[in-house]
Specification:
By secondary structure, the protein is mainly α. The protein contains 2 helices and no strands. The longest helix is centred in the N-terminal third of the chain and has 15 residues.
Length: 38
């Protein structure tokens, strides 16, 4: 089983802390992350 809270936190950390591209793009366009457990 995959814990949705853990996935959400991992994406949040990836986007906010570790992804320099996302940090650069965040200056102008809106950056949106979505995920789905199927």
């Amino acid at each position: 089983n995959i814990d949705p809270t853990a996935v959400d936190r991992a994406i949040e950390l990836s986007d906010g802390k570790y992804c320099s591209v996302s940090a650069t793009l965040r200056l102008k366009p809106e950056v949106v992350n979505e995920w789905e457990i199927a």
